[in-house]
Amino acid sequence: xxxxxxxxxxxxxxxxxxxxTAAGYVIEGHVPADLIRKMLQERPNVVxxxxxxxxxxxPGMDGPRKDRYQVLLFDKDGKTTVYAVR
Length: 86
Ligand SMILES: [Cu+2]
What we know:
binds copper (II) ion; single chain; 19% helix; 86 residues; 5-stranded mixed sheet
């Protein structure tokens, strides 16, 4: 997966387990669907959106607890901004 991530502009510090693309954006990891929809509507000037790592409690990561996690937008230089905290 790593060469695929790099080719799509996913830097190491925003990596998660899986990489998807939609409408010209990269979606990295367990990103909540409502935030993907929000980004696709707002069309920010970024490469994509990521939930780095595999936080417990993120969509598809159901478990015994719910951890707080950041949802980040990242640009082509790997610069991130916090888009939401869940
Ligand atoms: Cu995962």
